[in-house]
Amino acid sequence: MNYHPAVGKLFQRLLALALISLVVRCSQTCPITINSLCQCHNLHHGIALQCTGATLGKVVEALAVHSETIESLTLRYSDIGTLEANSFASLAIKKLDLSSNNIHKIEEDAFGKQASYIKELLLANNSLTEIPPLKALKNLEKIDISNNELVDLTEYAFEQNEALKVIRAKNNKISTLSSNSLNEVKSILELLDLSGNQLTQVPAQNLRSFQKLRVVDLSDNLIDKIPNLQFMNMPELRDLRLGGNKIAAVMPLAFMNIPKLEVLNLTRNAITTMETNPIQQFENLEILDLSWNKLNKLNASSFKDLAKLKELHLQNNEIQIVETMAISDNSELRMINLANNKIKELYKNAFDQLPNLNTLILTNNQLHEI
């Protein structure tokens, strides 16, 4: 097909203008004004900035000419102290990382009119003593406030965060959770990390009836027992981490209506006996970790009805006797670790009907024969 020469020239001019526009747009993606302060990377939907030691005011000023969305802004070691109102002017930021800035206070409206753009907020390794004002962050999906000085999750801390899926608050000084601190996210939250705090008991009231919660981490706290009805009505929970506490007993009805649990971690506690009732309900359990406890005996049928169990960790206990049929009828079980115990005797058929077992670790025991 032949075009009139004038049409061809017009097409060439339009193409050239389009290319120039594209080049200009790309050249404006990472503003020249930011180069001396931060590392800037072009991404498909915006830019990613990594700033170390630069002052917040100078970074915001250098980005004033940037009107596009910022995919991520990481600003660390800037000794911010107080995050004042409208600290980010008109910047539209999706992921904001302000970790390691000695922040002890965040004022109301610190994130300004553009707060609704923020989907991920990282405030780890600061000096915050309470959850900062988050009401303006309507689209917040993830918050990390680990390694601060929190002593509580305050009332209605997340009441306006209707998209929140992940809360990480490990390594604080949290000893209690206010009764209504998590109510507003019970229908949406998927991960809750409260490990490395000072909880002395399971915050049962706060944890009940989460609809989508898949991971709960309460490891490395000061919990000494799990009474009945502590974990209830958590239909999507897959991974429960309770290691590194002081748990000596798990009551028979400690867990109720947790049908999809796949991983139960109770390592590094003080459990001396393990009743079968608490764990037999977990038909989908794949990994059970009871290592580094004080178990002294495995009774018959200790782990029966765990049809999908694949890994059983019992190393570093004080087990002396493994009774007949102690571990039996677990058709999916592939690995049993009984290392570093005091086993003197394995009863006949102690391990029975385990067709997929391929690893049995018995090192550092007191067996003379098998």
Automatic annotation (TrEMBL):
Which residues belong to the signal peptide in this entry?
Answer: 1-29
Please provide, in alphabetical order, the Gene Ontology terms of the cellular component aspect for this entry. Answer: plasma membrane
Q: Which UniProt keywords apply?
A: Leucine-rich repeat, Repeat, Signal
Which SMART domains does the record associate with it?
A: LRR_SD22 (SM00365), LRR_TYP (SM00369)
Q: Name the SUPFAM superfamilies for this protein.
A: L domain-like (SSF52058)
Q: What Pfam families does this protein map onto?
A: LRR_1, LRR_4, LRR_8
Coiled-coil segments on the chain, per record: none
Kindly provide the name given to this protein in its UniProt entry. Putative leucine Rich repeat-containing domain protein
